Amino acid sequence: MEESKRNLLNEEAKASLDIWRYALGIADIAAAKCAIDLKIPEAIETHPSSQPVTLAELSSTISASPSHLRRIMRFLVHLGVFKEVPTEDGLTTGYTNTPLSRRMMITKRDGKSMAPLILFETNHEMLAPWLSLSSVVSSPVNGSHPPPFDAVHGKDVWALTKDNPCFGEMINEAMACNARRVVPRLAGACHDLFDGVATVVDVGGGTGEAMGILVKEFPWIKGFNFDLPHVIEVAQVLDGVENVGGDMFDSIPKCDAVFIKWVLHDWGDEDCIKILKNCKESNIGKVFIVESIIRDKKKTMMVEERDKKLEYVRLMLDIAMMAHTTTGKERTLKEWDFVLNEAGFARYEVRDIDDVHCVIIAYP
After folding, report:
1. What residues form DSSP beta bridges with 268?
2. How far is CA 204 from CA 24, 147, 201, 229, 358, in A?
3. What angle do CA 116, 200, 242 make, to 5 degrees?
4. Fewer Cβ atoms within 10 Å of its own Cβ: the N or the C terminal residue of the chain?
5. Topology classification of domain 2-102
6. What DSSP element (H or E) covers 241?
7. Are 357 and 290 a contacting pair, CB within 8 Å?
8. What whole-number distance in Å separates Cα of residue 25 and Cα of residue 276?
9. Which CATH architecture is the domain 178-363 placed in?
10. What is the DSSP letter of 132?
11. 2-102 and 178-363 share one fold
């Protein structure tokens, strides 16, 4: 009885602090965006001195208000984004980068930086729909209430991408930065599966970043970057990659293998099955699907801390799909099994790449 009472008091004490995260949690996102906008990580990384960068030096470098910058840096140091350490003479302190802050370098294209994705998700068009989640959740199944994104902007994300070139460029950059991060992991985990594969089509490949990386990893491959015509118009010209315009809901170019990353989660089961059927009909080999798989908790007794954090990101992605797409969602393995079977695939396997994403290899 006493132990139960103590546990309840501990839960109350924890709740009294945790509740503030829901009132002011936006501060984390806003401060990180501020650092990216002002290129603070780059200013620290490229400073001519090998010493920690003082507030005066940093404010001068990025032309910022010292008093406001001090408060932003104090907050980001508290979050562990930057470190504040004594200078060599011990008279003051300065700032240094961390592995986390380096992932906020907008000028880096090294496979680690997620700055383009952060800027995309924190722009006005993407933030506003989050505030309308309750309206779609309270709607009846197949109700008439439009999805949050459509309700705010009067059109879905794909229509806005087509009509607003600046927004389209942001989403292309966000997807490209994710490709630089994920595709090398896929290549390492699935190297054996590309033997004998001569042609690969990247469905929804955007600017061609993913296919460009893939043909470097497997130079014998001829790559096809396949996306809507208005996307292909601004795609990169890359060695070993041919850009092809079309619609994945109509047909997909013939090939030995299909690569499709972060596309199927944008669509509900009916559309997802249609896309997968077109993938199956287009190739004689296999389909590489790079997506998240939400864990079935009933089958998991012990969970490592890293796995908990990965699952948290996957669950956040699922809510993002609710806010930003009409029918999109992250899927459990059971839900992936359903759409793959309905699309007519004979079998599939899942390979872990130590990431938020997994690779599902589906065989016709």
Report:
1. none
2. 36, 22, 9, 11, 18
3. 70
4. N
5. Arc Repressor Mutant, subunit A (1.10.10)
6. strand 241-245
7. yes
8. 38
9. 3-Layer(aba) Sandwich (3.40)
10. G
11. no
Instruction: Answer whether residue 304 shows pLDDT above 90.
Output: no
Domain boundary assignment for the chain: 2-102, 178-363
**Active site includes 265?**
yes
Distance CA 99, CA 112 (A): 9
Choice among 47, 265, 324, 357 that is catalytic: 265
Element (H, E) at 201: strand 199-203
Q: What is the pLDDT of residues 83-137, one digit of tens each?
A: 999 988 888 999 999 999 999 999 988 889 999 999 999 999 999 999 999 988 8
Please list the residues that pair with 244 across neighbouring strands: 226
CA distance 37 to 65: 15
**Which among 128, 155, 151, 127 has a CA at the least distance from the CA of 139?**
151
Q: Element (H or E) spanning 207, and its range?
A: none
Q: Tens digits of per-residue pLDDT, 185-235?
A: 999 999 999 999 999 999 999 999 999 999 999 999 999 999 999 999 999
